[in-house]
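Quick one: sequence plus zinc ion SMILES, need structure tokens.
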Amino acid sequence: MECPECKSTRTSKNGHKRGKQNYLCRNCGRQFVDRPTTNRGYNDQLKRECLKMYVNGMGLRAIERVKGVHHTTIITWLKGVGELLPDAYTPEQIPDVGELDELETFIGSKKTKSGCGQR
Ligand SMILES: [Zn+2]
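Reply:
Sure thing.
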């Protein structure tokens, strides 16, 4: 079992919590239950804040900088929890992850050409 905090596999069983197997990380001391939610450690509060920022006109990159959540993660949330969003939300406004990545690659290659990182 891998620790969700430090990714260490030095964990041991630590009894049961609400019917679930509880584990204790011997590396960082964190306790966790078997297979927590798949939201990669982001809690609902943070999620809602990010989505609210997006709905209020903030760009995904801006949210990424402020909240430290990768923009592709936010897009996944936008697609998954549309029903939680206020009325202003329109699914058509969600950019495609693939397009964003292409843009990123484009910018990256431009930088490399003008820089001195040639091999
Ligand atoms: Zn740990």
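Residues 44-112 form one domain. Residues 3, 5-6, 8, 25, 27-28, 30 surround zinc ion (CB under 6 Å).
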